[in-house]
Amino acid sequence: MADDLIHHWHRGNAWTGAEGGRVGDVFDPATGAVTRTVPLASAAEVDDVVAAAVAAAAEWRSSSLTKRAKTMFAFRELIVRHTDEIAALITSEHGKVLDDARGEVARGLEVVEFACGIPHLLKGSHSESVSTGTDSHSVRQPVGVAAGITPFNFPAMVPLWMFPIAIACGNAFVLKPSERDPSASVRLAELFTEAGLPDGVLSVVHGDREAVDALLTHPSVGAVSFVGSTPIARHVFETAATSGKRVQALGGAKNHMVVLADADLDAAADAAVSAGYGSAGERCMAISVVVAVDAIADELVAKIAERTRTLRVGVGTEPDSDLGPLITGAHRDRVAGYVEAGIAAGAELVVDGRHPEVAGGAAGEGFFLGPCLFDRVDPSMTIYTDEIFGPVLSVVRAPSLADAVSLVNASPYGNGVALFTRDGAAARWFEAEVEVGMVGINVPIPVPMAFYSFGGWGQSLFGDTHVHGPEGVSFYTRGKVVTTRWGVPAELGTAPSSLDLHFPTNR
Ligand code: NAD
Questions:
Q1: Ligand 1 centre and the CA of 229: distance in Å?
Q2: Which of 241, 256, 337, 469 is deepest in the core (most CB within 10 A)?
Q3: Given phi > 0 = left and psi -120 to 50 = alpha, else beta, which region is 351?
Q4: pLDDT, position 363
């Protein structure tokens, strides 16, 4: 039974949603119990929220840059102070271990810190005398109302990729977080209001497809940021773009880690296990395929297997747990189904995590699955082709670096990739040739810092702007160039003027 009803966050006041509306269940994945209920907004409710955002945006856009920066700094302090509390909320609904949850808050915080520099980020440029007596300057203005739709796997960090920058740029923002773990978003909105953000500038509306589609087609929403799976990213991109909005829709991933014979194999094995099984593989930048090049495959697989067997599966609040449960029972069963499919297709299951010992919990009822390692995976198998989004790591063997890169480039996804080597020339060639948006050299999860922008290629991103960093600022603003001619001061006379129907050229 649910013991807690989650609220929408609307005009700075908790708002439960219309009486008798649809609701969804929020689970504690470690126990399998329903712990909270989340309202699922109707299109009419979304309309209400957007109307309030339009009114708030009209005022907020003319707030001073100093006020926006100060609000952002105050928000930063509140997040720092409440990190443990937000992390606990994340673990209670997502299941990831507490330390991992704290890490996600810390990475989201870095975007808030980037947004604190908004006065500098929004500086335009000015050119004197672009033509005789004529000057030009550029400004970036907010789009008005921006919307964000976010996935379950980073309930704090992914929303923080979006709304701090959009709001610092002078927009109002409507966030539709994942209905599976919605509480962290509401807590962040409360803290932003406590930091001094005016009512209506940030709203959190919960829901499913009905709420999302209402946002995607709403005439008053100017920009849509989405992060989630590839099929929904494509739907979001097509629907919002057809409605005339700018869209950035980040999709799924299948990230490779290529290991050359000259690499430090212990470091590579540590990296593969950390990046493959961290957060139970529910990260869009998780490594899901290790490509072992040339003769090192047996040694590398042995090192990965040895480390994988030491991992402790457990409840996220247990300090000793390395990985927690998956998000839902249905998802755990889907991931386990891929393990069965891999075995049936002839891959070698080196480490079998299907029946894990679970520390600190009722193993039978939580959504746990232990780490699984496959060797001799063929690129035709579904464990290779599909995004599994669970603790399943596949090893593919490739004869050369060029073959490994061809394999990576044939994947429809292009989110992240890593190369492990001590050979600078190989690394340079790899970096130039690989068709992936985020590349790590001896770094397994190359998530860009907040002052760069995050995004993949191929079916990992629909649209052309990456999130946060400089591209985030340009996504949430529209450029305007003003060309000005004042003539001469009246006391000095009159500037010459004549009729001239020619196309204006500069001489
Ligand atoms: P999802 O696509 O199921 O859901 C994402 C959001 O879309 C949620 O808010 C959900 O309510 C909404 N949604 C779901 N179905 C919808 C529909 N039919 N119409 C409209 N909206 C719908 O994704 P998820 O399971 O929450 O998250 C995991 C996925 O997100 C993985 O594929 C992962 O790779 C991806 N992801 C990508 C990145 C990235 O940066 N590229 C980052 C994190 C997660």
A1: 4
A2: 256
A3: beta
A4: 53
